[in-house]
Amino acid sequence: MRVATWNVNSVRLRAENIAAWLAERSPDVVCLQEIKCVDEAFPRETFERLGYNVAVHGQKGFNGVALLSKRPFEDVTPGLHGDDSDVQARFLEAVVSTQEGVVRIVTLYLPNGNPPHTEKYDYKIKWMDRLIRFSRERLMLEEPLVVCGDFNVIPASSDAKNPAAWVNDALFLPQTREKFRALTNLGLTDAIRAVSDSDQLFTFWDYQAGAWQRDNGIRIDHILLSPQATDRLVDAGIDKHVRGWDKPSDHVPIYVDLDIAER
DNA sequence: ATGACTCAGGAACTGAGA
Question: Is residue A119 part of a domain?
Fold first, then answer.
């Protein structure tokens, strides 16, 4: 089973771009972020035509997450619990059944948090605390669990081309990285780091100042695996070349291959 | 030093991104 994640920065603008990548990579499950539309405006037909079931949790204008799956969804739950006043569409959980049992999938778009020392950073940290509580609960199920998305966290200096440029940024502040470590310390494995120690593994390049041409990137999109999923990890990778396509998202897709038979 | 791009909404710009 191949599970991928991609912050597409508008699913309507990128639909054909995404379809081309699907044909190339053939993922079984895809987690999308920043779809930037309401549920009714999601281009379902583009993906249903390619054999995917679609689950959407969108909102007007910005944010929004979605799931594509070749296997039908057994269960779909929008929203990260822990704050009833939070109306931002950033989290969607689903269960997919396979020949070997269920696989639980999460697509998330973690708040950016900039600028620091504001309510935006406070929202980010509280959101991460909620994600930690969610993960602790789900890990108790002892299932294959794949938590995917744009975490807006640079985990370590080796995850940025120019780490010095990020020291005062919400993506790299010590408290942000502490929360990310608290998450992985629950027993979730960073799939990309499980297969490579390279210091050039980026998933985002800014549109500005020739960041892509200079390879001035950061690694902020992640796939975290429960122990039961990590046991089945075969490979993980980053589809960097997609950033060079026409009208690209500023993020690229990443994926894992798990030794779990579909039906 | 600063800003540099890109997108949605809605019709000239602002907010948001990271």
Answer: yes
Quote the CA–CA distance of A3 and A102 in Å, as a whole number: 14
Q: Which domain holds residue A87?
A: 2-258
Q: Is residue A229 part of a domain?
A: yes
Sign of the Cα torsion A216, A221, A224, A229 reads negative
Q: What is the DSSP letter of A162?
A: S
A229/A71 Cα distance (integer angstroms):
18
pLDDT digits (tens, 9 = 90+) for A171-180: 999 999 999 9
Cα–Cα distance for residue pair A168/A166, rounded to 1 Å? 6
SS (H, E, C) A1-29: CEEEEEECCCHHHHHHHHHHHHHHHCCCE
Classify residue A110: in a domain, yes or no.
yes
Number of domains in chain A: 1
Mean residue pLDDT of chain A comes to 97
Could you tell me the pLDDT band of residue A263, with boundaries at 50, 70 and 90?
Answer: confident
- CATH number of the CATH domain containing A43: 3.60.10.10
The whole-number pLDDT of residue A262 equals: 81
How does DSSP assign A20-89, residue by residue?
A: HHHHHH--SEEEEE---S-GGGS-HHHHHTTT-EEEEE--SSS--EEEEESSPEEEEEES-SS-TT----
Q: How far is CA A23 from CA A165, A223, A252, in A?
A: 37, 21, 15
A150 is catalytic: yes
Q: Is strand B in 7 Å reach of the CB of A234?
A: no
Q: Nearest nucleotide by C1' from A114 CA?
A: B18
The pair of structure tokens assigned to A183 is: 């998450």
Q: Is residue A263 part of a domain?
A: no
Which nucleotide C1' is nearest A220 CA? B18
